[in-house]
Amino acid sequence: MNKQRSNQYQNKYFxxxxxxxxxxxxxxxxxxLVLILGWVFYLxxxxxxxxxxxxxxxxxxxCGTCMKxxxxxxxxxxxxxxxxxxxxxxxxxxxxxxxRKCENSTFSDKAINVNKNGTKDFxxxxxxxxxxxxxxxxxxxxxxxxxxxxxxxxxxxxNTFEAWTCKWVI
Length: 170
What we know:
Layout (H helix, E strand, L loop, with lengths): L1 H11 L8 H25 L27 H16 L3 H12 L8 E3 L5 E3 L4 E2 L3 H4 L7 H14 L14
Antiparallel strand pairs: 1-2, 2-3
Helix pairs in contact: 3-4, 3-6
């Protein structure tokens, strides 16, 4: 009886899974096809690296303030410079020199400076908190609003940069 069962087993089943020879071969080919397709899909559609542009600014790769990956620094700086040129027009070279030499050489929107009198300067143009009563507080966190407020201060001072304490020689 044992011999008959083992012969019957050998004839009817092909492998340890209990599949027929045809089903076993089909399963192997299907598995191989899935592996090849998965590999090809990965090669052509692999996701981009997420933190390579951020790693220089933040070692963890995530901006601590905004909790999302930071934009590439050059792209951001280009946007800021273009906006300053659009806003200040002919006075934009002076505005850029002011920032570069005195206030915020990296054009960082995260720059905060605490003054001796307890006030703080924020963002690209380092606008002081004393201007919050007149212009609101959006300039503290939004660089575009910061540039807009800087332009308003520039116009209110007779189109001069005297509100900024830094003096430079061109």
